[in-house]
What we know:
By secondary structure, chain A is α/β, with parallel strands linked by helices.
Amino acid sequence: MPNVAVETVKLTIDGQSLTVPKGTLVIEAARQVGVMVPHFCYHPKLKPDANCRMCLVEIEKIPKLQTACSTPVAEGMVVRTATTVVNEAHKSVLEFILANHPLDCPVCDQGGRCDLQDFSHEYTPTTSRFIEVKRVFQKEYFSPLIEKQMNRCVQCLRCVRYCDEVMDVKALAPVNRGTMTEIKHFGTHELDCEFCGGCIQICPVGAITSRLSMYEFRPWMLKRADTVCTYCGDGCQITLQTKDNQLIEVNSSLGAGRNNGDLCARGYFGYHATTHPDRLTTPLVRRDGRLVPATWDEALEYVAETFAQLKLKHGAQVFAGVITARCTNEDLYLFQKFMRLAVGTNKLDSSARYGQVNAVRALCRIQGTHRWPVTFEDIAAAEALLLVGTNITEANPITGLRVKEAVKKHGATLLTVESLQPTVGTISNIANLAAHHFTAHPDQYKPVVLGLIKAVIEEGLADQPLSQKAPAYLQAIRDAVHALSWPTIEAATGSSAASFKEAARAFARTARAVIIVGAGVLREPGASGLAATLQDLLLLTGHHGRPGCGLAPLAEQNNDQGAVEMGTVTECLPGPCDLDDQEARARVSALWQEDLPQGPGLTIPEILEEARGKTLKALYLVGEDPVGSLPESARAKEALEGVEFLVCQELFLTETAQMAHVVLPACSYAEKDGTFTNTEGHVQQVRHAIEPVGESRPDWEIFSDLAGLMGYPLEYGDAKDLLKEIRALVPGYNLPGPTPKPSRPDHTAVDRYLQQGYAEDLGERYRYTPPVKAAGRLTLLVDQSLFHSGKFSTKAKGLLHLQAEGAVSLNPADAARLGIVEGDRVLLSNELGHCRTTAKVWDRIPAGLCRFPEHFDQEARRLLSVSIDVATGVPYYRSAQVKVEKAQ
Amino acid sequence: MTKFTAWIKTIIFYEILVGMKATLSHLLHYKPITLQYPHEKRTLPDSYRGMLALLRYDDGTEKCVGCDLCEAACPSRVIKVFSAEVPGEPTKRYAKEYYMDMTRCLFCGLCVDACPVDALGMTREFEWAVYDKRQLRLNKEQLLAIGDRSYPVREKRLEFQHPNVAFFNVAFKGLPEKES
């Protein structure tokens, strides 16, 4: 964040004098000295509106009362908030509001935490002078998730302003005038928006409430647990509220966590997944071909015994383990320790393999550190932002809010390279805010990035110090982009050279620039190369290494970053350090007081390959479901059938778990303690809100018990004990403050890259050959949707209300050409197979592309082929070429 | 004289007579105070606080809106309310389940005071001796039955009588339009 000297002013509030920065509002200044000015329409996140008139205060030398929420402080101002005149004003405002308020507090979910209740209690007489009939709004529809009860509304318009200013969705608007003002959405259908729940949280009264927990609770009954949402890598702090060990609702308070009280639909409405009735409650052991319930002792002893026998017979190298990056750091750490010590193999991996590994590799290679060089605050304060393949408003909505804040509040220049078209729709579209937008298919981000670099070079925007420091590097890039002609780039991207030059100028001439990349880059072939090329762009424009600038790859899973740092990916030891780094090995084995196993590690695709070759005898899967999540072409089922002993540790009986010999029930995030590391590398506490469902146990406890039974005791009192050990090995896990400290690039690494590191693949990275596309085929992209993420979101009833089935989204022009209208049954086919689904015509899909939501792709997945990155072992299976036709 | 009086009082056991005055007078005018309880019953005071009951409106619908305020007011945690939306009538609230553990009840009447819709009443029933104290955990149906037998005269349903005072838990149909 930039540090600017701030001017201050001195004022007096209720006899207390204070000094605050110039421009502070009186209401905020009053709060600093502990004076609460009653208000409805004021909210720190929103621009002042001063429509509720509740915050009237007396200011000396101003004849009339002033609204504290819209009056900035001035030098020498004397404010009084508790005089008779002010109290009379409060009384009259409340009398007007209560003239129409139905006083249905007994049946209102806000009752007990309602601003109107509190202020009425404090300021009004108990009788009203109004004898008129109260205003009654007729209801038009009853919503499945967000219930509006307009009779309770105090017309503060906070919801409308939040929806516009913060979320940029603009789903709500006030209709009519005066007391008849009503909050409505557009159109005659039900509310159709992002369902972030922001209007529910921000409503000071009970006019907008959540239907999911309606009437189930009273605020004073709820127990709260501040924990971290697991639906994406943003790491939003959520408060799980429970009553009698049941999850009732989710809140997020202003100023808490990295999300500052903002949530998305998944965070706000997705909490029912953990208490789904299908949760596994007892261990299951396969007897006579069927999985039957067993006790923990039986199951664990069986696993430990079989592991020991197999180890005796075949050695430790026939074992492998995969853990999901949705577990806590403690679980991840103990898993790799268990695999390395108790089992004795390095053949372990986590689901960070599916994309995050690419990001970390690229960061490590060029900046020498594995974490973001920026924070969310830096994104909000950036002057230029380049988004490549993020679809940020759907995949990482809260990071998306920071981008929106940068553009809408601070006027940043936004450049987007996305497979989106700027269109008006019911959910926000980041391309709408872009000053320079390049629509590109998911496999066509590279020519756009190369175009930008070419424009930077040709426009002479390259950083001067760089040309002196690394002339050879600059020359190599210059030669490489020179070899690319503008017509090639124009043909590949559909954008003109002039637009690239304009965008490059806008990006290069700013003091603070951040590049954000998402799954579109990290989970497509050539990912680590493209991430490196984007760092080249930062180096060329001189942004690399400057505070507040850098490359920010978005994590898809809540603890992807943690999984890498805990050494739970094949190539890393805790730290993360390279597996063959002798110094790191010595450090780790000194702490563990045990020698580390020799032998290579195996990535997920390699593990499956070995399993197919029958050389793998035992596989331990923790929360991973290769059969259910990889496309059929990965032949995961065939591989797992060849494994002699398969142990699954799961929440639900997934497709893989159904094949297992032993299934161990694990706790979800709502039932355990630990830490998650979010996408920007901020370590946050996870706290249990409910007791474990059934007999399920936290993952690390299971590892610890198994290790004990196998004769390698790994004993810990609780998750905190584990965190202490983690701190000794991994930097950055001390008690975190409210904001992370971004990592500073390591200059030796940057210099090494600039001197010779670039040379190894520069030619490859800057070469562009247009892909050969069969005529009449569309690119199918299996992508995340806003309402689902992770493996459990389809178990959450709130999210199923929003999206319950998959449909293939098509560009209107393509649909018209194929004679398809919304709701038609369509047939998608290619060499690998075919699938039938419903069509949806969506104008934000660019021509030639069709999109299918990842969470309903059981059918569509069989069209995808898997390609494996040679350098990082990442399996890519997000897009395919398909033929789309109307089903008969 | 005084000596003589004292002597007389001594020989006739005057103090004992004074002390036994009430006993002796009752000996003569025999009228027992003890009631032969199951056969005879006392007249209860007007504000007697007996067994709690849930009440109904005249159309037979439950008055309770499931607001949980009785639960909050109860000092000994007698009451447990599980409220929910009325099936088929969105946004109307009612108590899906309602339990009172009468073994703990102090009969303080705070729940009755707290009730915003006068759905709770204290009856004049007190004969609730049972052999198994689990029988004193009453559910909604039992409490309504107590109300039915103790309050034969039911209040008229409020539906929308006082729209200038407060209105809640009314179905969103047939409400008077505000005159513009």
